[in-house]
Amino acid sequence: MEFIKSNKFNIILIALALVIPFGVYPVFLMKVLCFGLFAAAFNLMLGFVGMLSFGHAAFLATGGYVTGYLMSNADLTPELGILCGTLASAVLGYLFGSLSVKREGIYFAMVTLALSQLLFFFFLQAPFTEGENGLQGIPRGKLFGFIDLNNNLSMYYFVLAVFLLGFWLIYRSVHSPFGQVLKAIRENEPRAISLGYSVRQYKLMAFVLSAALSGLAGSTKALVFQLESLTDAHWQMSGEVVLMTLVGGMGTIFGPLVGAAVVVGIENFFSGGELGTYIHIIMGLIFIICVLAFRNGIVGEFNKFVKNNF
Amino acid sequence: MDTILGINPVALFGQLLVGLINGSFYALLSLGLAIIFGLLRIINFAQGALYMIGAFLAWLGLEYWGLSYGWALLIVPLVVGLFGILIERFLIRPIAHEDHLYSLLLTFGVALVLQGVFSHVFGSSGKPYSIPEFLQGVANLGFMYLPIYRGWIIVVSLLVCFGTWWAIEKTKLGAYLRAGTENARLLQAFGINVPLMVTLTFGFGVALAGLAGVLAAPIYSVSPDMGANLLIVVFAIVVIGGMGSIGGAIITGISMGVIEGLTKYFYPEASNTIIFMVMVVVLLIKPAGLFGKEV
């Protein structure tokens, strides 16, 4: 347990992340990192504040569409494009958050789901998203004007850097006084209120941070695949991020990344060919099994095992 | 056609009728959700999938088993209700003591599996279901022509909704149910078998979705994803109405259908989103919902 918390462990992980694209297809790795960041951002709310958002696809898609549109039409450098996408998601997060934190628990889940469906129809009808076709052939551009990202290996290291930045931000937030208040709200909201914390403000801040980081993941993903489509805005995407977090272990730091790797891996295995139609059945079954028998997720169970045996 | 103040009455009444029909389905589904929520404190994400199964069973019945529409209307809700009882007994009850968010995620998983199985077996294209003979034809109401089947949907769902409201608010069984909603442990102390009541309530709430599915089969095409999108709209309606009252769920459901119909006439671009926008306005003005009791 001590070892896992140590800096040595982190350094080994990062070193592994640096050499792994030489053994594994980089596009797959980038997909895992983007969804890992997305799930980690989502987990910031579900795992650390106890708020189940069922509309996080909205932020992923907003980041992706804004970045994709600007990269295709405004000739921005990728870092600026991603920044704009992230900011757009943060603004949307503020709007959605102000409305939804008024309700709790199950209502909160329904409000976020309905709001993201509203946005889905907006993206479906708005001319700049090109409807069912989506934005295709988004240019990756040159990072800071001189690093060509069309090379998958350079793109991988860029995505890794974005991921580490986002992950570090989440880690810092969770382990700050702000994060302590969030956990207090999760454990006992009335007590947090009685201690004088303005709980709604804290919830809203967590919501905006989570939305912005989801937007960061979506923006980066749009550059990786050079494509942004309605799939990202669909409610099934909101369900998928819940599944990733659940499988990996909610309320853990590394859980969402592990969950994203598992879910993306399963999807890649089943996509294409005859097995394609089984994917929703498999996802649903994993949901049911996790909820019935595996609520701590992979990382949660692992932590428990280490704690009990070492 | 004559227009009055720039409004074409035939088209307007046509959209109003469509709105009333959609509203009937909204009312049936949100009523089911509200009843289940009352006792179990969960939202059933599988409600849309069970509505879809209701429609599919009606279609399968007619296509393969010679089950006519009239029988389907009776038998299918029972079958769907039984299926719901199995879900409650074997999946939801084991985790009922955990955080309710887990049960919600569980029903979401169930919905994904059901939808996945049906699209795997039947493909994603819609299946046609013809209107039964005794409900075909059109009635002339003077100001408009009413296809009889559409009138039938409105009458049946209003009767079922009103019957449910009456059973819950005015009968002894309903009194148990309301008592369970207030304080299930105390009710159990009075010797009522609460777990059984929870199971039957879940079954009944789900059967309403099955009934809505049978009613929908002849006018919407029967397809595996027919329930999912409808359910999200129903969620918005539940947020608008709040789940404090049974009557509230019915009224909100029907009126939202009518508002949607009017939007289709006056500003069709917004007809997909109008209910969500109403939800935003309600959240701004009265966050607990129009009929909600919580703060």
Give the structure's gist in a few sentences.
By secondary structure, chain A is mainly α. Chain A is built from 14 helices and 4 strands.
Report what the structure shows.
The complex is a heterodimer of chains A (310) and B (295). Chain A has a domain at 26-233. Helices cover 72% and strands 3% of the residues of chain A. Chain A is built from 14 helices and 4 strands. Chain A has helices at 2-5, 7-19, 26-46, 57-73, 78-100, 105-125, 152-174, 177-187, 189-194, 199-225, 235-248, 255-270, 279-293, 297-309, and strands at residues 135-136, 142-143, 147-148, 227-228. Chain A has a two-stranded antiparallel ribbon with strand order 1-4. Chain A has a two-stranded antiparallel sheet with strand order 2-3. In chain A, strand 2 (142-143) and strand 3 (147-148) form a beta hairpin. Chain A is globular. Chain A starts with a helix and ends with a helix. Chain B has one domain. Chain B has helices at residues 9-40, 47-64, 69-92, 100-122, 148-170, 172-182, 184-189, 194-216, 226-241, 246-266, 274-285; strands at residues 138-140, 145-147. Chain B is globular. Classes of the chains: A mainly alpha (310), B mainly alpha (295). The A-B interface holds A 52, 99-100, 102-103, 105-107, 109-111, 113-115, 117-118, 121-122, 124-125, 235, 239, 242, 246, 277-288, 291-292, 295 and B 37, 41-43, 91, 94-95, 98, 100-106, 108-117, 119-120, 228, 232-233, 235-236, 238-239, 269, 272-273, 276-277, 279-280, 283-284, 287.
Radius of gyration of chain B: 19 Å
Report how far apart the termini of chain B are. 50 Å
Residue-averaged pLDDT of chain A = 88
Q: Residue-averaged pLDDT of chain B, rounded?
A: 86
Order of helices and strands of chain B: HHHHEEHHHHHHH
Name the strands of the widest sheet of chain A in spatial order: 1-4
The helix-strand sequence of chain A is HHHHHHEEEHHHHEHHHH
What does the overall shape of chain A look like?
A: globular
**Count of runs of 4 or more consecutive helical residues of chain B:** 11
Approximate strand percentage of chain A: under 5%
Low-confidence stretches of chain B: none
Largest interface, C-beta closer than 8 angstroms, per-chain residues:
A-B, 39 and 44 residues
The level of helicity of chain A is: over 70%
**Measured distance between first and last alpha carbons of chain A:** 7 Å
What structural category do the secondary elements of chain B indicate? mainly alpha
Number of helices of chain A: 14
Beta-strand content bin of chain B: under 5%
Biggest pleated-sheet summary of chain B: 2 strands, antiparallel
Quaternary organisation = heterodimer
Biggest sheet details of chain A: 2 strands, antiparallel
Q: For the CA atoms, what is the radius of gyration of chain A?
A: 19 Å
